[in-house]
Amino acid sequence: MSGSLATQVGQLAHRSVLRTLRQPAQIVPAIVFPLFLLAVNSGGLKDATNLPGFPTDSYLTFALAVPFMQGALFSVMNSGTDLARDIETGFLNRLALTPLRGAALLSGLLAGTIVLGVVQGVVYLTVGLIAGAELAAGAGGALVIILLSVSITVAFGTIGLFAALRTGTGEAIQGLFPVFFVFLFLSSMALPLDLIETDWYRAIATANPVSYLLDAFRSLLIEGWEPDQLALGFGIAATIFIIGMYAASSALKTRLVRT
Amino acid sequence: MNAPQAHRPAGLRAIALAVAWRSIHNFLTNPAFLVPALVFPLFFFVSFAGGLSAIANVPGFDFPTGYTAFQFVFVLLQSAAFGGVFTGFGIARDFETGFARRYLLAASNRSGIVAGYALAAVARAFVTWTVLTVVALVAGMNVGGEGIEIVGLYSLALLVNIAATMWAAGVAMRVRSIQGGPLMQFPVFLILFLAPVYVPLDLLSGWIHAVASINPVTALIEAGRGFISGDPEVVALAFAIGIALPLLFSLWARGGLRRAEAAG
Fold it and tell me: Considering its fold, how many domains does chain B have in total?
């Protein structure tokens, strides 16, 4: 990275991180809401571990993968809403008058998402372990879980950037939240794929990449080190990131032409 | 020359109907309002009844009409509650845009404004319930209850809808901004999910059993499940709670209306 680009990214990253940290309304729901659902689901679905073939006798351990995905969904909202606000307030137009590069803008905007991803990952894992969840992969597994959490959070964050650049309004970004929740609910969120009895539901969940992201977390929590599942999880996150960045870059060019 | 006729101010009924008509018209003609109201309950129904159907195989789970009917009751009551909350969003939006101020200026009896919003919430709930019920029956839901029991189920849902509307209206008229949305939504979400959502109360254990045992929504859900299975239980308690909640939250909404009036 050239010195100029590094400076540009650094300035925007600094602003993005500060803006994230100064908005409790972004951080608190992204942490509290997934933990609440974890508490409710791990209590309410505890008996699911009695089903033959359930991979663990602790539903809490099984369900602990879900908050990481919910946190990533919040990153779509947060990154998208921040950029949409920059568009609505005219800040992006002012940036367009500077020699700032598009890559610097997008990378810098994701800095706040990275920080949020780290905070979320550490909090979810810590609370889960304190509550009694197991971590079969040990301390090294904890680090990989945080890394995977950040990777997925950033990957989903690029979708938020793309949506903001395409729509230009925070209201439209908020409207996307339920759409992304569909992906989470129609996955192996509550039961393993092979225990889902409804055929069409199992077919959708099998085709849904979110199921494999959940499996990557669960492999570390329940089984230990499973390179195939981890590679698949990181690979899906990388693919979403590449597609999201490409789409956001294209949308940025279009928006700057419009202005 | 005849003396000019005195202009009679509109009564509560006329005001309520006018407010309700506008809200219902907005709901039915704006896809941004209509689609989420229909899609969300269906989505929850599909996720719970489809994705979790294996829960019916858990030892001790013996709901006679199956897991689809078991979850239908929860989703019906949830859609009733969230129909009320979404109406609260509409009230908050009317305050943000200044339309609610025009209501306050024009209405001789301002309770009619709240009554109108409540009527609109009921109307939108009926639209949602119709679609949800048709989808559930097409999906093969078994219904064990007789006609009167099904009326009982939908009556409970109606009471939940009115209670949630009054709660959300009270918040909306105090905050008078859509930023109050989470305050309307989160407590409702919380109390609904701290009830026996996935399995009967008897199969819950630990803290969630303790909380669900004292959660008033538990009685509503259990009574609703009793109705749909044709084996009514805790009916008197459920209706006592179902009637008390709207009355309680009507006082809360009236207080909100007074705050809005004072704010001008």
Answer: 1
